[in-house]
């Protein structure tokens, strides 16, 4: 599972598929394709033939919040949708959280493993165990703020999805 913040106003909100038609999605689908999770490296609209394998992309918040800063009430209102997705997707082994907000939402929704003694710090490529045997992988969000400044590079992003693929293959 790839967990983002929310649909972008000019991406997922416009195209009807999260991360589709925006620059963050360009980064995401290229990385998913490279790691074998997608049949093509780009997605421009919901009818472009993109097919995901062993992957589901969703968001913690369901509306495009102003300045990409959801209010606490929006997060609370949308939590049941994420919880239901996790319930339906009972074979989720890895959650790749794109950004701190998604990282915190994953922990709040799935819960830390009993072996975790304290709340982990968010940092790129952090890896920790959640309940139900789920591994949480953290990544900086592929927003222009992070990619244009070099805070997130393609090799850094690719390594997160390569690691996700390896975790999945190890459990088969």
Give a quick precis of the structure.
The chain has 172 residues and is α/β, with parallel strands linked by helices. It is built from six helices and five strands. The protein is globular, with a radius of gyration of 15 Å.
Per-chain topology:
Layout: E1 2-4, H1 12-15, H2 23-34, E2 57-59, H3 72-88, E3 94-98, H4 100-110, E4 127-129, E5 135-139, H5 144-147, H6 154-170
Parallel strand pairs: 1-2, 1-3, 3-5
Antiparallel strand pairs: 4-5
Helix pairs in contact: 2-6
Structure description:
- 38% of the residues lie in helices and 11% in strands.
- The protein has 172 residues and is an alpha/beta fold.
- It has a single domain (2-14, 56-170), classed as Uracil-DNA Glycosylase, subunit E (3-Layer(aba) Sandwich), CATH 3.40.470.10.
Uncertain spans: none
Gap between N and C termini:
17 Å
Overall mean pLDDT score?
A: 90
Strand residues, percent: 5-15%
Overall outline: globular
The secondary-structure class comes to: alpha/beta
Name the strands of the widest sheet in spatial order. Answer: 2-1-3-5-4
CATH fold topology: Uracil-DNA Glycosylase, subunit E
Biggest β-sheet: count, sense, barrel?
A: 5 strands, mixed
Written as H for each helix and E for each strand, in order along the chain, the element string is EHHEHEHEEHH
Helix content estimate: 25-40%
CATH architecture identity = 3-Layer(aba) Sandwich
CATH class: Alpha Beta
- Report the strand count: 5
Rg, nearest Å? 15 Å
CATH-level-4 superfamily name: Uracil-DNA glycosylase-like domain
Number of individual domains: 1
- The number of helical elements comes to 6
